[in-house]
């Protein structure tokens, strides 16, 4: 169980790293936003899954899952808001406005 | 570094710091907001790893609050920040 948890945590960290790389390398705002919010939430989900497997008590596991659920909900909403506001403010894509 | 959880937290922190330094030097304000969102999500993961590694269960509550606050930053920025030239978009 401990080993399985570490497997998940390692994958989660890999997703976080790829999210950071995407933020630095992707061509325009919307692709960056997409990469950032997806990769990060998968990364957080994998880290939380790994920690749940190592948690050892139901209440701790439930709290970890609650954190993940709230962050996922908030991140989805905020990324939508940012994209809409950026579009209204006239930010274009790499292919034009 | 007796607990690998602390090492994992350190790796995440190093990655997000490198990303932040590069992105904060970009001119656009939305880019900086994106960096802040990245920092928010990563910090939640770092704090959760620290809660396990340091055996401090109270840090899990901190992660909960951090996750909510980072989303409020995004909402406030979109609602009141000046993203660009469009100043009349204040509706719901």
Question: What are the SSEs and their pairings?
Answer:
The complex is a heterodimer of chains A (97) and B (92).
Chain A: H1 2-25, H2 29-55, H3 58-88
Chain B: H1 4-24, H2 29-53, H3 59-80
Helix pairs in contact in B: 1-2, 2-3
In short:
The complex is a heterodimer of chains A (97) and B (92). Chain A has 97 residues and is mostly helical.
Number of strands of chain B: 0
The biggest chain-chain interface is: A-B, 45 and 42 residues
The overall strand count of chain A is: 0
| Low-pLDDT segments of chain A | none
Question: What is the mean pLDDT of chain A?
Answer: 88
Main beta-sheet annotation of chain A: none
- Decide which structural class fits the backbone of chain A: mainly alpha
Ends of chain A: how far apart?
A: 50 Å
**Approximate helicity band of chain A:** over 70%
Task: Provide a descriptive summary of the structure in words.
The complex is a heterodimer of chains A (97) and B (92). Chain A has 97 residues and is an all-alpha fold. Chain A contains three helices and no strands. Chain A starts with a helix and ends in a 9-residue tail after the last helix. The mean pLDDT of chain A is 88. With 92 residues, chain B is mainly alpha-helical. Chain B has one domain. Chain B is flat and about 45 Å long. The interface between A and B is large, with 45 and 42 residues.
